[in-house]
């Protein structure tokens, strides 16, 4: 099945799109996606392939995830998400552990953003969440992003405290991709409870990076946005 998936993805490959994606996902020397290889396959096309092979076994998924090719890795994660929707608790736990064991291969922001909410966040809804705080303190950029993006599963259920706590840990993060992710999470939290977001901003506005703040206040009124941008 592994080779069939590879062949199907190859049919969609587009060299011009691959060139654009390589630049967009910063694959140059010293950039965050250094060395990543793209085929030029769109996410909708990858979803089609993942759905077609949604019953792939874990060995096949692991082979895909360990590939040097970006679209192979994302397709592996999309297959897991298809399987999780109908999985029992044991299988969900197995995928949860598999994901955490393989974070070195979940190494760009789209791979994180399209997978961790469903694989990590959803699993932790009724469980201890200390793993998120460990990830938030990781030296690995992508593990820190997993920590905050996974909390989107909680935000959907109006469980907001973990998002605020993880955001606090990440306030001093140096990477722009974390600033954007935390700001995005805070913005979504604000849709559920604007007062909770304002309380957080009022307490930490001196520490909040500008990019993070801009994302967080995006849904505020113009007057309120100006107030926070002036304060910071």
TrEMBL record:
**SUPFAM superfamilies from the UniProt entry:** ARM repeat
Per the record, the domain of life is Bacteria
* InterPro entries in the cross-refs: ARM-type_fold, DNA_alkylation
| CDD domains for the chain | AlkD_like (cd06561)
> What name does the UniProt record give this protein?
DNA alkylation repair protein
């Amino acid at each position: 099945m592994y080779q069939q998936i590879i062949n199907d993805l190859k049919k969609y490959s587009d060299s011009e799109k691959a060139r654009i994606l390589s630049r967009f996902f910063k694959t140059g020397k010293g950039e965050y996606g250094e060395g990543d290889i793209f085929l030029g396959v769109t996410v909708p096309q990858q979803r089609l392939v993942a759905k077609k092979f949604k019953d792939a076994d874990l060995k096949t998924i692991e082979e895909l995830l360990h590939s040097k090719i970006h679209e192979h890795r994302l397709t592996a994660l999309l297959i897991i998400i298809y399987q999780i929707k109908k999985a029992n608790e044991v299988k969900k736990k197995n995928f949860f552990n598999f994901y955490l064991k393989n974070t070195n291969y979940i190494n760009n922001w789209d791979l994180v953003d399209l997978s961790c909410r469903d694989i990590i966040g959803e699993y932790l809804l009724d469980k201890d969440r200390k793993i998120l705080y460990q990830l938030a303190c990781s030296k690995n950029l992508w593990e820190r992003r997993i920590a905050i993006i996974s909390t989107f599963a909680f935000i959907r259920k109006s469980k907001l405290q973990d998002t605020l706590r993880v955001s606090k840990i990440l306030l001093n993060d140096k990477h722009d991709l974390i600033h954007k992710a935390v700001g995005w999470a805070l913005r979504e939290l604000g849709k559920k409870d604007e007062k909770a977001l304002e309380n957080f901003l009022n307490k930490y506005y001196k520490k909040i990076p500008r990019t993070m703040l801009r994302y967080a206040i995006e849904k505020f009124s113009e007057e309120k946005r100006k107030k926070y941008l002036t304060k910071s």
